[in-house]
Write a structure and sequence with these properties.
alpha+beta, Alpha-Beta Plaits, 294 residues
Length: 294
């Protein structure tokens, strides 16, 4: 009980809850009114809504898939997945009985498909990113993808494209225009997931060659609250030994540091490289949790 209620776990559950709510509202208020299909159980629910209500299908399908996951992926996976996997269909079930799904889209007189695909894609991507970054899943066809990966050794990303691709292809057969907008929405969601859930922050790595490393130490640690690496180097032309400082900074810190270079050593040689991804304390949110789960 103590482990479940510790601060880290509470933060994780809060983020998962917020993520599922954002994702569900995006689906219910933007994608569903225009019948846009973005793959997964949500997409299948839209395709079969002529025969069974979306909320009922979504809830029943996720329950069935959860127990399939329990059989093939084990009890631990089931326990880690059940909360997020059940929260979304339960929310859709409640929303369907309390709020009309076109409460927003009925006011969109121009380009309703564009509004739906953009805001739906952003909501789905942002919500899923919050869930994924906390090492959880919303269940659904994610369970099928994990089973394919475990037993058939199909890469998870390949399984994702295959299953979601089939769902969207079926949607395009039913409504070609809606299908193309759905593809755009799915790609937009993918961008948000990649940027917010998978990647660390980008930054800039600086290499400073100087005779006054101690001055830089005071600036980097004292003013920027960053650490750095100090390396002894030898000049190729002068054959003189110098210090090279390697430090990674954010864009805002980079501008501050340029002023510090002039103060610490105006004669220092500095070159800056763009770092596409920086993982670690100060760059990756919840770094200690990320390390523990990796």
């Amino acid at each position: 009980m103590r482990t479940f209620l510790n601060k880290t776990r509470r933060i994780e559950l809060a983020e998962i809850t917020v993520g599922v709510i954002i994702m569900t509202l995006g689906f219910y208020l933007f994608l569903l009114p225009q019948n846009l299909v973005v793959g997964g159980v949500m997409g299948i629910a839209v395709l079969v809504q002529k025969w069974i209500d979306v909320d009922v299908f979504y809830l029943v399908a996720n329950i069935i898939l959860l127990f399939v996951g329990l059989i093939f992926l084990g009890k631990k996976f089931f326990i880690n997945t059940i909360y997020a996997a059940m929260l979304s269909p339960v929310l859709v079930f409640i929303l369907a009985r309390t709020i009309d799904n076109d409460i927003i889209m009925k006011h969109m007189q121009e380009s309703p498909y564009l509004v739906s695909s953009v805001f739906g894609g952003i909501s789905i991507g942002l919500g899923l990113a919050l869930v994924i970054r906390n090492n959880s899943t919303t269940g659904g066809v994610d369970i099928i993808q994990k089973i394919l990966h475990k037993y058939l050794k199909i890469p998870f990303s390949t399984a994702l494209y295959i299953i979601d691709g089939i769902v969207i292809l079926l949607a395009m057969i039913v409504d070609l225009q809606a299908g193309f907008y759905a593809i755009g929405s799915m790609l937009l969601a993918g961008l948000f997931i990649d940027r917010l859930a998978i990647e660390g922050k980008s930054g800039y790595t600086l290499f400073i060659i100087t005779d006054h490393a101690d001055r830089f130490k005071d600036s980097i640690i004292g003013k920027l609250d960053r650490s750095f690496t100090r390396i002894k180097v030898l000049g190729g032309y002068t054959n003189q030994e110098k210090d090279m400082i390697v430090v990674t900074l954010t864009m805002r810190e980079l501008y501050q540091f340029k002023l510090m270079v002039k103060e610490a050593d105006p004669n220092a040689f500095v070159f800056v490289t763009k770092t596409n991804e920086a993982l670690g304390e100060g760059f990756t949110r919840g770094f200690e949790r990320w390390i523990q789960k990796s």
